[in-house]
Amino acid sequence: MLVRERMISPGKRLSANLPITSAIGEFEKVSSSWLPVVDQGGSLVGLLTWSDVRKAQSVLASGKQEPESEMMVQDFMTTKFLFVTEKTPIEEAVRIMIDYDIPELPVVKDGYFCGIITDKTMLRVLMEITGARRQGLRLMVKIENKNGKLLELLQMISNQGGSIEGLCTYCGQENEYIIATMRVEDVDKYSLKQALRNLNVEVVDIR
Predict the structure, then answer these.
(1) The domain spanning residue 169 has which CATH number?
(2) Does the pTM of the predicted model rise above 0.85?
(3) Where does the chain have alpha helices with state H?
(4) CA 198 to the chain's CA centroid
(5) 11 and 107 co-located in one domain
(6) What are the 10-residue block averages of pLDDT along the chain, 207 residues in total?
(7) What sign does the dihedral 149-199-171-117 (CA atoms) show?
(8) What is the pLDDT of residue 171?
(9) 28 and 112 in one domain?
(10) Three-state secondary structure along 129-154?
């Protein structure tokens, strides 16, 4: 899955040469922590953040600026910022957001601002991966981290007539085992538990 498949609409954007007083008014209408700033060609050149807005408001309140030389967005915007492209893998976007503790990232395509990826978007992706909205059994198992073990499990479920609608895995301590969580449809719970027992797979949770 790539960012372009789950990014949301670009929404409001600011011109770099927009008067900062006008930008402050626009900023107060949105709930985002920043607004994208683009040049005349539409390329993303910066972000106007709440911190930038507060700085601008402080300068305006001081009365030190010259009335005839209106300050622009480009005078206050943040020019060093993190972003992803539309072709960035969704898990890489998640890593950046977690590592830098940021709730949303701008998305660019060939340098042009084209969307936003947010932490709420990532929660929706998690729901899709785990099949949270699907019917069927939620199965969580612990298997050896060896070649073919996961495939063996999936093949067994298929042989039972089950279909897997969501699957995610992660490695346990020291990579000795894998925890696999999936949504399984079209299979009886007790028949599946017996088959898992025969396969010598540890069931962590099934419901």
Answers:
(1) 3.30.70.260
(2) no
(3) 20-27, 50-62, 90-99, 119-130, 149-159, 189-198
(4) 39
(5) yes
(6) 88 90 85 89 93 90 65 93 96 94 93 92 86 88 91 93 90 83 92 90 92
(7) positive
(8) 87
(9) yes
(10) HHCCCCCCEEEEEEEECCCCHHHHHH
